[in-house]
Amino acid sequence: MTSVSVDQSGAFTPVAAPLASDDVVDVADIEGFAALDALVSRDRVVLRAASCSDGRVFGVARQLRRRGFRGVLLVEANLLPDQLPMATSCGVDAIVITETHALRCAEPQWRLKAQGERFGYQRATGRNLSSEVG
Asked: Residue 21 is part of a domain; what is its CATH number?
């Protein structure tokens, strides 16, 4: 199966060859800062997440950048276009998705989400919801 790289602007680029296994780190295997410190000196790190719902990938990416990682930081997971601004704000250079996922979540969707500044999981509203609860 081939892959597609999605950059910070939402543009697609085909990935010609599989990612080097030496660069790939499964976020489920990172248990502490010592594991992150071992990655800081690398030129490239690929953070692999099992699914788009594994939010650890964002925390690990942010912590790697905070600890001084200056190389290329990729995420290999079928994230959703809505997650692109969050990934970018955490220091991710590109997201690698499967070709099948790229067909479901087309490039125009990614480009549209790349233009937005807001990220997060709460809806934007002008109403004070706390007064309506309880």
From this structure: 3.40.50
